[in-house]
Amino acid sequence: MSKSVLGLYNDPNQAADAMDALKNAGFAQGTFDVLTGTPYPEGAFGEHVPQHRLFRFPAFGAIIGFTLALFLTAATQIAYPLVTGGKPILSLFAMLVILYEMSMLSAVISTVVGIVIESRLPNVNQGVYDNRITEGLIGVVITTDDDKADTAIDALNGAGAMEIKQA
Amino acid sequence: MASEAVHSGAHSGVHAEAHEEAHHELPARVEPDVTTSELIATTEANATGVRNWMWILGALTLVGIVVAFVKVLIEWSDQDEWGYTAAMVAFLFSAFGGAPLVAIAGTLAKGNWVRPIARFAALCSLVSIICTIWMIPLILNLPMLVVDGARRRSIWFEGPDVSPHIWALVAMITLIISALGLIYAYAIPDFAAMRDHSTGWKQRFGAWLARGWIGTTVQWRTMRMRIGMMGTLYFFTFVFVHFIISTDFAMSLVPGWRDAIFPMYHAISSIQAGLAVTVIGLWAARKYLGLEKYLHLDQFWSIGRLMFAFTLLWGYFFISAFIVFWYGRSGSDQMWIDYLILGPYFWVFILAMLFIWFTPWWWLIWNRVRRSYNGTAIGAGLILLGVFLDRVRLYVAAWTVPEDRIHERFLTEYPSTVYPDVMDIFIMVGALAGSILLILAATRVLPILSIWDVQQFNLLYRPVEYMKTKVSLIGKPD
Q1: How far apart are CA B188 and CA B436, in angstroms?
Q2: pLDDT of B384-424, one tens digit each?
Q3: Which residues of A touch B215 (CB under 8 A)?
Q4: Is the CB of A68 inside 8 Å of chain B's CB atoms?
Q5: Are B174 and A105 an interchain contact pair (Cβ–Cβ within 8 Å)?
Q6: What is the residue range of B315's domain?
Q7: Assigned domain for B4 exists
Q8: Which value does ipTM take for this structure?
Q9: Which among A33, A36, A45, A132 is the top mutation candidate for probing chain B, defined by the most B β-carbons within 10 Å of its own β-carbon?
Q10: How many separate domains does chain B show?
């Protein structure tokens, strides 16, 4: 059975100390995290900064949109072979506008989808949380087995937690 | 985290000190809990006054919509009757659509001054929804690609008959999705703040849209990325929509009008108008929502300088097009000058040039003006008036060209001046009122300034003593 423990801090330095204390107590990176109401500079708490794949979504989306547009415009030009201005039937410059537009549309849609996926939203298993985090308090949260919860609480208290919450 | 001193708070000399004290005090830091509660309270601030304004704007919007329906019934097939509607749509898209670029450019460049204004600038993109709705009668009135058995000149060289109609709509839908994505990307942490500290339906609404946001490292990291990506995609869609609107709804309707710079001119004047809308919105928010603590001279000063730069750029783009036609002297070149400048809208052009370029140039050139809230707002008002008149000059002229002359090599006989009738005025006022209403309604749901952005501003900013002066010390995370 796992337990979620949250330590609340007024001072960011204490929160950084709590992160160090959890690391020193043997908890693995990725099992604990810092919760803030505003983005601190990355690594300010010594937290584990995971990689993301968000950039793949617009890239894949754009490729799909471009391919569809290429098919659409080429098929249209072949199906209705109108010679315009003495240019070839399959003229890339006539396709460019639609290629661009479809690529953008597809990239935008896939980025919105990517945002939801990569942000881990909706977060149905929110765990322990405190509303005061959006008012400036800093939370250090850890999810661990029941038998290690006391060690985690000691580490969080040792760094000067003003309050401990469990769920 | 690198830090840097970005601006001085005082100069040497008694006079300079007095001047700086009056005009350039460094902003005080605000505690995060105060920021959260005060900015959430802005969604209720001046409730009676805002509600009254919303009723007035709603009534004007409704009247505009009803009049538009009447116009559809009695003047449906008269293309020249829709010129002022086209001008208004182009103006609204230009002014409100350009505003988010202030937030995007500032955020991508990691500018600290832009933080408190990014939310309002992004909210302006909501007006793309209004523009799309008002574009429907325009799209339906746009001539087919094949007129009287021959293809008219357009950018759709080998496309089907309804290409401009379909792709203009697709472009606007892409812009709407980008706009909503951008607004949402900025707003998720604030929805969480509303979930945590609002009451009633706003609390429930915030909880639903926050989707379980708790501010983890992953969530903040991906948020930075998605703002950058949605901003970039919005920018690329924005310039494309300018290309489509300026070519399909203006240039291709006038035989002989071939101007490679025109879409860029359109986009540049849109960014100029977007800056102006941002200034006016912030000025109003500061004055009527009591946000003096959060909106500082730095924001107005910075946007004022950008407005000045874009005002000068308007001159550059205009003269770049003009000089080609002036010295080209071909029939179509002469037509461009005779019809769009010296022709039936000569006085509109003169007024547009005065307000979009000459007057703001000689108004915003002064440091004292740019360093004042009211001075910057007056400059912004002038620019908006100028951009509106410029759109009238271009779009009304384009929409009054009879369809049966669309195949001419260039226009030889110019349609006379078309003045707005009562229905045009109601439609224009209704469309503008609807746009303002939408943004005002959005600020009743979301704080007009982003809570997390303002908190980060305070997190990374310190007013410090530096020798005999005061400076802002700003941390810039890389």
Answers
A1: 23
A2: 999 999 999 999 999 999 988 888 999 988 999 999 999 99
A3: 35-37, 133-134, 139
A4: no
A5: yes
A6: 31-476
A7: no
A8: 0.85
A9: A36
A10: 1
